[in-house]
Protein 1
Amino acid sequence: MLVKSPVREGGFSRGAEPPILVMDKIEEIVTDGTAMTQKIAFPRMAILVGSFLAGGILYWFSLSPMGLLLPIVAVAHRCDRIVLFTVFGVLVLALASTVTVALAGSDEMRPFYVSWATFFAVALGCVVVVGSNSPAKSFPITGIEPDIGGRHPPALSAEFLRLVHPDDRDLASHASSRAFWSGFPQVVRYRRLEPDGRYTWTEFRAEPGYPIADDTPAKISAQDLPWSITNAVGETAEAARTALVLETIFGTGWAMDTTGRFTYATPNAQTTIGQTLEEMNKQLTDLDFLDGGDLGWKHIFHPDEYERVAASLRHSLRAGEHWNNEYRLRRVSTGEFGWHRVAMRPTRDRDGRITGWYGMSIDITVYKQTEAALRAREQELSQLVNMVPVHIMRLSGSGKPTFLSKATLDYFALDDQYAEHSEATLETMQSAVHPDDALRVMSALRQGLERGDRIAVRYRVRGADGIFRWMDSRAEPIRDASGTIVEWYAVSLDVNDQVLAQEELRLAHEDLAKATQAANLAELSASIAHEVAQPLAALLSSSEACQQWLSQDPPNVDRAHQALQRIIRSGNAATAIVGRIRALFAQSADAREPSDISRIVGEARDLLSEELLRRGIILKIEIDRAIPALRLDRVQIQQAIINLMRNGIEAIGPNSDVRTLRIRIKRVGDAIQTAISDTGPGVESPSKIFEPFYTTKGHGMGMGLAICRSIITSHGGRLWVENNEPHGAVFVFTLPVLEEATEPA
């Protein structure tokens, strides 16, 4: 219940409206503090609802207003004094109104008004009688001048405390103070004196008020309150007064003299730590506290905290500096230690001399437990991140590093202060990128940051050991509710072993292909030698025989003629063998079938994808719609496309600014035109490029483009080369469209 009362120095004014305390009889009746019987009261709301229902039913059936007496009596019996006064006022007004109407009204309606006037009169009598004996009452806290000399705080009036059992007065006083301090209702049970001399267990609910009432001077002047103030307040009166104000506002406060002894502490604090002021101020050694001695309050501190706290407090007491600290205190109820955050300030006289200290503390145990749990969770996640063999990074929206995993720090030999020097850290990481990859990496980063797109790039980066290793990096933007990029999360996976293994595998494939080619050539050579050797041997033998027959005197012409016939037959046999070998390698239309050129290009792309990725080249394929099928040899055309693509890949050097290979397929008249363009240096001699054994490469044989032209020509097409703008070369070939080739393979 809100309390609106003027405040004067020294306490509440007599004319102030006091806070309200509501009591209910709840459990047992005792005499002289001894329980005699137990009587459980019905809940207030249930009684009120039942009374209203019963009264309404009675009025409905009797059509008499007397049936409504039951809910009115229930309200008077169960509600507090404010509601009772409200009901009383309403009944008085209703009675006066009905009497006036009855006197001024017609004779026919007079009995009706008289019956209601009678009802209101009887109801008033019931309210007066029942309300005076209601078990739920309200008492003012400060209805009279506070009784400073008793064993209770002056917040409660003497009228109220006179009805409280002596053993329960401190409990009731403390509950009312706590309600005033905290702003929350306080509920306790105490024994209340009834008119017949018995004590009844009563529920005490203290509703808080909000104005601050400070009766500090009265408390300070009454130094016989052993539960809160020492017998010698002395110069710390101002500190104690301020501590009481803090207590009124925050529920906690204490005062201390300049030697480290407490002169005031709340009873709740003393109950919590299990020490009185005398016990806290007891000197444990011959030395004073400021000289290195100890006082009784040492026993409530955690052993690991006391020396640090005592040294800090001595320094503040000597220097007059503000004291702020956190430490653990033992709770007497559980024996456990709880964390407290304290603040203490000095009070000074007119000359600036310190006269005392006042302070307050806040229980931060839950905060510390939460902080410890979060720290443990953070450490767990940090250990998990550090266990992963991946470089994990968090970047700001502009790309500056704000978090680097331990693996990243170790790789670049960075210290833990990288976030404070983000510019230098970023420069260190960028300078470690391989020169051949730097332009491509920076371009990808710049485009990603500008567009907010996902970043994916593979590159070489130098570690702290000076060795370059391949990294596969990915970065994703994190956006807020409005879509603005606030952070980037990036990971870099060390794929150096994978890249080297792939390179070794590629070289092994090339060596295997060469070995296979050599083996096939050797086998072919052996086969040719075996097939041709016999007719050549026969030819040689017949030639020698012919020579012998002709060298005789006279020459044997018939035999020589027969030898010549054998020579002719052997030559024809050798010619036939050579013809079969030529037919074996001749292009034939027997293997041609309707095929989709776009599918062949896709297969060639898949075969070269690893090399494109390794060299950092972007492949772009553009295919017009409705490209018809072509009748061709898939293997030969695919080999020609692969040769042309590989030629373009090798033309794009590591220092090329633009690393793009483009394939464009479109229909031109009755032919399908395929153009493969690169961004390399271009072709110096377009007229010689397709000649056999002509090459501009140090390791080439000069047969690739010649074979490609031979394949395209055998399919009825044409292959030529053009210069690409602004740089590079374009190899273009056409293949004719045949009407019978309608179904692609």
Note: The radius of gyration is 53 Å.
Protein 2
Amino acid sequence: MLHGTALLAVSLAFGVTLSVAQSQAQDSAPTPDIVVTVPMPPDATLSADVQAPAIETAPATAQNEAEAKPATEPTSDPAVIVELPPEAPLNLDSQPTATIATPAPAPAEAQPSQVQQAETPPAAPASAQTADQSADQSILRDRIRQALASAVEAEPARTAKAQSQRREREAVAAFYTTRDNAPLWTDGKALTRAGTALVARLDRAGEDGLVLGDFRGVPTIANDEQAAATELALTNAAITYALQARGARIDPRTIGLITAKPDIPDVTTILTALAEASDSVGDRLAAFNPPQPGYRALREKLAELRREHPAIANQRIGPGPVLRVGMKDQRVPLLRARLGIDAESETDPLLYDIRVASAVADFNRANGLPAVNTLTARTIAKLSGGEPLRLEAELLSNMERWRWMPRDMGETRIEVNIPDYRVNVMRGSELIHSARVVVGKPQTPTPVFSDRMQHLIVNPYWNVPTSIIQKEMMPAYAKDPSYFQRRGYEVAKTRNGQLVVRQPPGERNALGHIKFMFPNEHAVYLHDTPSRGLFGNARRAYSHGCVRVDQPFRLAEVVLGKENGWSEQKVRAMVGGGERLVKLPETIPIHIEYFTAFVDDEGKVQLREDIYGYSRKVQAALGL
């Protein structure tokens, strides 16, 4: 995927810099339960140092951290429209089924929704009008209450997924109860201003790579049942948008060694925020997307790619279940068009019939796939091929991983991007230090997470992880009984007979002369290394999981603060002797990241090798 030669034409037109060809990896992850009834996309621990180090504390200084502010987008004229049947049932689960759709570019000129307006009757006396309006609102509120109650009791919650869905339906019902079931998006006859603003934002969900389903037609609000159904359908769509925007579609732990924790809001928080936003509901909903500049830059490049290749939005066949003869699916019409099959007049356009199945088998055979007549994910991937599409998928998968990052990453912060093999120290948008790093091998990957750097240790001991002792050292010891002695390791046994190995400070120490500590569940850290020749390699995935840094003494000066009297020379002067611990004046946020696509300072998209296969797995989970 994204091979340099195949991407050449796109790269020239789009300003893409391809660093290393990506490796292939496939996997899938279930989509978490999201909302009430709106249709949604388918679902070496290191030992502590034995010898207590001496402590030297650097002077403290104040450190300001700017509050990251959510980005907002101006709303366009609404183009997303909801179609409900003339007599919409009260049960939320009976709402029109939405086809899973791939994010599409917003039209150049979005057409406003043709929201049905009730004819204005002859004026009635003010008192009579007030009484009628009060009665209408009372009926509408009762319809909403009935629809919510019906949704909550729709089906027994026998599975964990069903229980989660029921809790979310109950949360929606509880929210409306607190407002006496007063509607947010409709007045009983048409959409309110807030409802119109919401529809406009939902129409632009694809700009952020979100997939809400297929809203079709004009919302017919001819009676109270339809008004209640419209109200709750839009509420469910808004919840889906907010949860997807915050990263609820994929559990990061299903992708790899990723313990980043997306900030997923609950249903009540979402609806309360939107209710308080009133006419600015569109901007408030958009603000659930990541606020970081890195995300916004990728979003802009996605829009640019879609402008330059407008056909890509119509080329992709969305994800879904495996299709077999006799099944019906919303993707079949596009599949027919792609394969050049005209539907016979009497044929249900959604039917996956024998003609379509035969054409799929022929396509599979011609493209080196098993010649089966079922529509599988592999067939969809081939049908949706093309370099612009692959670049779009790369941008979207990296945008999705931004949703897992802390929304406030810190004014002064340290970022290690694993596929880029670099550590950057940032102050706001200013890069104040950058250096090469060596990261974990694919077999022993560096974990993806965020923490805070607290101190550094000069002349560190290396307490060898048990996994390395068992897998590497003991086999070597079995062949050479002098293995530990010749390499200067200290070996001891605990009371329970477990072997403990550590390497004392010195030139041969695997951690070099200094390590940077941010205590975490993975027991990983940044450190110096005696194997400095590896920094000259383009591909630098060699470690057991920790991050080896080039220019470690320069990094020490930056994190301790030259303004606090620290310099490279002062830190180097501490080398030799026993361990010495130096606390940072203030802890600094550190983020171990995994981005295979990012925008550089010149506005060009940079692509990196997917060394752990995480991008491919995210794309598979999103159906890209």
Note: Confidence is low (pLDDT under 50) at residues 1-13, 20-121.
